[in-house]
């Protein structure tokens, strides 16, 4: 089955203590779409400006990503720039230039409104609502977010949480949203906001799923060297949703394994700037790391 992904399609300028790269292909939807494309057909919803390099469109096409819902507008592509400290878990946003995103209203191609799996990747919650409004009875809807929306669009975000099956957020966002420091104690509070499934990401320490079946702890793939973690969360969500869409039957039966696949795709993302590493791997590379992770966590 297919996955429809909406989110930011961006040019990212990223600095780490080791290096800096301007105007790389980035954005939550770009990372998620490439990650999901290893498992299932992907439909990308977003907007880019006339400065968006043609080679990035070709890269999406090489991954078989359907670009019918990617608008091309006069003006500048969303540009985000960020800088990492020596501890790569700490990042500072240097600039967020909305460009064509400022007036973006996603309109889904008619044929895409029946897509069974929907990933509302990080973007303004009002746009996430707008996409969901156009969908016809999707089978499974997941949403991601960021601290910015907790600060400036909380009401919209809370409304959205009543409409999604799975909410994916990181530990600091969970803490901010629930005012609860302990992530395990935060989980029931997050369920009370609406979603049946909640995943809290803890960076290099993996992620926790809370569902009616209980808790599951997914490991992160242990990396000796992180080059650039930008987009790791989006790759996790994309890999997870792609894997779910490719698995037959009930979603519950595959969530745990989907998290492991998400972790593995995220690990590749961290090994290169932007999408440089993720776009060079094959499905077999993913399977190899999944097997390794299974071995590493067997008790
Ligand atoms: P992550 O590392 O998972 O937090 O995701 C980083 C990606 O989020 C980058 O590729 C950015 O282009 C994108 N991004 C940063 N700020 C925003 C924003 N305000 N809205 C949507 N996407 C954003």
Descriptive labels:
single chain; globular; 299 residues; 4-stranded mixed sheet; 9-stranded mixed sheet; binds adenosine monophosphate; 23% strand; 35% helix; UDP-N-acetylmuramoyl-L-alanine:D-glutamate ligase; alpha/beta
Mean pLDDT metric = 97
Order of helices and strands: EEEHEHEEEEHEHHEHHEEEHHH
Bound molecules: adenosine monophosphate
Strand order of the largest sheet: 5-4-1-8-9-10-11-12-13
Describe the structure.
This protein has 299 residues and is α/β, with parallel strands linked by helices. The protein has a single domain, classed as 3-Layer(aba) Sandwich (UDP-N-acetylmuramoyl-L-alanine:D-glutamate ligase). It is built from 10 helices and 13 strands. A hairpin with a 6-residue loop joins β6 and β7. α6 crosses α7 and α8 packs antiparallel against α9. The longest helix has 16 residues. The two termini are 34 Å apart. The mean pLDDT is 97. The structure holds adenosine monophosphate (AMP). Adenosine monophosphate binds next to β2 and α8.
């Amino acid at each position: 089955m297919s996955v429809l992904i909406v989110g930011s399609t961006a040019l990212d300028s990223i600095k780490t203590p080791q290096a800096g790269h301007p105007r790389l292909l980035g954005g939550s939807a770009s990372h998620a779409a490439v990650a999901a494309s290893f498992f299932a057909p992907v439909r990308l919803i977003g907007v880019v400006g006339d400065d968006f390099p043609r080679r990035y469109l070709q890269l999406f096409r090489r991954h078989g990503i359907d670009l019918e819902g990617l608008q091309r507008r006069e003006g500048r592509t969303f540009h985000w720039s960020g800088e990492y400290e020596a501890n790569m878990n700490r990042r500072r946003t240097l600039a967020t230039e909305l460009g064509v995103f400022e007036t973006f209203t996603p309109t889904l191609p008619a044929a895409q409104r029946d897509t069974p799996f929907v990933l509302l990747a990080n973007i303004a919650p009002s746009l996430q609502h707008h996409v969901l409004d156009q969908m016809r009875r999707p089978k499974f809807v997941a949403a991601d977010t960021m601290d910015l929306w907790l600060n400036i669009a909380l009401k919209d975000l809370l409304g959205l949480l009543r409409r999604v099956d799975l909410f994916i957020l990181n530990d600091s966002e969970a803490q901010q949203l629930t005012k609860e420091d302990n992530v395990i104690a935060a989980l029931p509070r997050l369920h009370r906001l609406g979603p049946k499934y909640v995943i809290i990401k803890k960076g290099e320490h993996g992620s926790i799923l809370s569902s009616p079946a209980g808790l599951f702890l997914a490991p992160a793939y242990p990396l000796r060297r992180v080059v650039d973690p930008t987009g790791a969360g989006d790759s996790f969500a994309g890999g997870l949703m792609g894997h779910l869409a490719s698995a037959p039957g009930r979603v519950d039966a595959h969530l745990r394994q989907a998290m492991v696949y998400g972790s593995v795709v995220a690990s590749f993302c961290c090994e290169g700037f932007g999408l440089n590493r993720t776009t060079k791997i094959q499905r077999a590379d993913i399977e190899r790391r999944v097997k390794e992770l299974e071995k590493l966590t067997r008790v």
